[in-house]
Amino acid sequence: xxxxxxxxxxxxxxxxxIGAFYDTPRSSIILSxxxxxxxxxxxxxxxxxxxxxxxxxxxxxxxxxxxxGSLEQAFSQTKPDIVIVATSDNSHxxxxxxxxxxxxxxxxxxxxxxxxxxxxxxxIKLFAQKNIPLLINYSRRFIPVFQNLxxxxxxxxxxxxxxxxxIYGKGIIHNGSHLIDxxxxxxxxxxxxxxxxxxxxxxxxxxxxxxxxNVINDVKFTVHSINSKLYTIFECDLFFERKRxxxxxxxxNVELYDVVSxxxxxxxxxxxxxxxxNVTLHKSLYYLLDNAxxxxxxxxxxxxxxxEEAIHTLRICQSIRNLNLHD
Length: 327
Ligand SMILES: NC(=O)c1ccc[n+]([C@@H]2O[C@H](COP(=O)([O-])OP(=O)(O)OC[C@H]3O[C@@H](n4cnc5c(N)ncnc54)[C@H](O)[C@@H]3O)[C@@H](O)[C@H]2O)c1
Description:
This protein is α/β, with parallel strands linked by helices and 327 residues long. The chain has 2 domains: 8-139 and 284-305, NAD(P)-binding Rossmann-like Domain (Rossmann fold, 3-Layer(aba) Sandwich), CATH 3.40.50.720; 144-279, Dihydrodipicolinate Reductase, domain 2. It has 10 helices and 15 strands. The protein has helices at residues 17-21, 33-39, 53-62, 71-78, 92-99, 117-129, 144-154, 172-186, 284-297, 307-322; strands spanning 8-13, 43-49, 67-68, 82-85, 106-110, 134-137, 161-168, 191-203, 206-214, 220-225, 235-240, 243-248, 253-261, 269-271, 275-278. Strands 7, 8, 9, 10, 11, 12, 13, 14 and 15 form a 9-stranded mixed β-sheet that branches. The chain has a 6-stranded parallel β-sheet with strand order 3-2-1-4-5-6, sandwiched between helices. Strand 5, helix 6 and strand 6 (134-137) form a beta-alpha-beta unit. Helix 6 (117-129) packs antiparallel against helix 10 (307-322). It is globular and about 75 Å long. The mean pLDDT is 95. It binds nicotinamide-adenine-dinucleotide. Nicotinamide-adenine-dinucleotide binds at residues 13-19, 50-52, 55, 86-89, 91, 94-95, 110-111, 137, 139, 174.
């Protein structure tokens, strides 16, 4: 019987921090796509392409691989099976348009899929026509702890969702989208109810906005933006009939609270001491690549974060960005 080659070649477009420079081959944890690829037993990093050729060359040197002067050169020399797009937010849709001229088996794209819904929808349609699966890196979806939480919520074990809060900074599209995506993943899709604060702490066209979402049955999720020039914060607090879930430190720690009887005041129910779960968030890039790897072997396998899911998130972010404060 003919042996099927299960090894996969991977090209990284965008030799920036998350593509190449957040860590090195000697780092103990995986913080870059390059490290995720070199750690995967059946994936092989064939090189980098970046419009900044110096960065591509430097990344290639660190990760002991090749660099290319153009996408065309990268494809003609390596024919990559998996392509990772780790370029700046505003370039994703153009890079994906260029990529659609080729036929890789899977494409991983950093969030956001695009910076406008129109561009994002165009990309999804094009990739669906070409039958190239897209996988978007909303990182928490790839982590088993968050997948388990979702399963418990979906099974009704925690009871109905009662409301919650979130905190973030660094742009509604750039970073607030992680929070909205996490809410969609865990609890369900939502609609914008109102916005109440806006600050430009990250970029001129991507403000950090405070807002309220309507989730299921008119239940609200309130989000405060905190100026990321002061410090970085990403938190989420979700209340259910039988459980409270606090997601802290960007998702590196999760606290689970049960409802217990108060020992001091008779007949009072309160939340007990939390069970603390340490999350291996830094493994998300590896899990993301592994999902892409399995899709490359069988494209009926579901992406853990699809283009449609990323567009839902982008649609909410875009409405929040475009709403006036008094709307
Ligand atoms: N999922 C996450 O948790 C997470 C974390 C960090 C960054 N990101 C995302 O990763 C992406 C990259 O972030 P970063 O911090 O590494 O940025 P960066 O600025 O360090 O790197 C971006 C690189 O892309 C290159 N580039 C820009 N346009 C290009 C194009 N058209 N073709 C080829 N190369 C191009 C730039 O020269 C630069 O080297 C962003 O979209 C960001 O939102 C996601």
